[in-house]
């Protein structure tokens, strides 16, 4: 997706060979026009799949997931990273190792929102080693719902996530595929 790649090149900050900071338009400040285009692109790639729900993880997955939900006309559920006071019982839970924080956390959703008849699209901001996506997939499995695919805003193709998800049979659609962050430069898969 050209507009996204351009935004990454102009406003992304390479923090290390493995971490890209996009606080200017995705992870802190959000560019609504770009988010709308991202939603349209996800919707175009996954239309005609009979999707009934989108699932993401708080906080940075919410903006692109909501825009995709708006385009596809389906509700969006975001998994919470901790058990809040209002989310007590009837939870599906999964453990996720966080790439950025290097700690394990529990993610959870209420079982009220996903059912065995649902066809679910997973959306997240980044794909690194695939742990967040696999955690979300685990929640969908617990609900006996169908996984239609995984939509990622920025995939770091030099990490293992994509291969892991493909190996397990999931469709992966990434809007920007970063080949390398070496020498302080972002290059894309062509
Ligand atoms: P994974 O679970 O695939 O290893 O990592 C994906 C998760 O870690 C995403 O939900 C995202 O929040 C975070 N993440 C991974 N790599 C990056 C990165 O380079 N930059 C930012 N901002 N977040 C990242």
Descriptive account of the structure:
Its EC number is 2.4.2.22. It is a single chain. The protein is of the alpha/beta class and 190 residues long. The protein has one domain (2-188): Rossmann fold (3-Layer(aba) Sandwich), CATH 3.40.50. Helices cover 29% and strands 31% of the residues. The chain has 5 helices and 10 strands; from the N terminus they run αββαβαββββαβαββ. The chain has helices at residues 2-11, 32-46, 62-72, 131-142, 161-167; strands at residues 13-14, 20-21, 53-57, 76-79, 91-97, 104-110, 119-127, 146-156, 172-180, 187-188. It has a 6-stranded mixed beta sheet, sandwiched between helices. It has a two-stranded antiparallel ribbon with strand order 1-2. Strands 5-6 form a two-stranded antiparallel sheet. It starts with a helix and ends with a strand. The relative contact order is 0.17. Guanosine-5'-monophosphate binds next to strand 2, strand 7 and helix 4.
SSE layout:
Blueprint: H1 2-11, E1 13-14, E2 20-21, H2 32-46, E3 53-57, H3 62-72, E4 76-79, E5 91-97, E6 104-110, E7 119-127, H4 131-142, E8 146-156, H5 161-167, E9 172-180, E10 187-188
Parallel strand pairs: 3-4, 3-7, 7-8, 8-9
Antiparallel strand pairs: 1-2, 5-6, 9-10
Helix pairs in contact: 2-3
Bound molecules: guanosine-5'-monophosphate (5GP).
Guanosine-5'-monophosphate (5GP) binds at residues 19-22, 27, 57, 60, 99-100, 124-132, 161.
């Amino acid at each position: 997706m050209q507009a996204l790649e351009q935004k990454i090149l102009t406003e992304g900050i390479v923090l290390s060979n493995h971490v890209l900071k996009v606080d200017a338009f995705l992870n802190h400040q959000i560019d609504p026009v770009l988010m709308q285009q991202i939603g349209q692109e996800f919707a175009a790639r996954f239309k005609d799949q009979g999707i009934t729900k989108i699932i993401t993880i708080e906080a940075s997955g919410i903006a692109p997931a909501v825009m995709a939900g708006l385009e596809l006309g389906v509700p969006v559920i975001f998994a919470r990273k901790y058990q809040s006071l209002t989310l007590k019982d009837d939870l599906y839970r999964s453990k996720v190792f966080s790439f950025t924080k290097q700690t394990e956390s529990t993610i959870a959703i209420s079982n009220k929102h996903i059912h065995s008849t649902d066809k679910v699209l997973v959306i997240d901001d980044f794909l690194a080693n695939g742990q967040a996506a696999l955690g979300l997939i685990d929640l969908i499995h617990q609900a006996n719902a169908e996984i239609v695919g995984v939509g990622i805003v920025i995939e770091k193709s030099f990490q293992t996530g994509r291969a892991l998800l493909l190996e397990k049979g999931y469709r992966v659609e990434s809007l920007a595929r970063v080949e390398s962050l070496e020498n302080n430069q972002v290059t894309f898969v062509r």
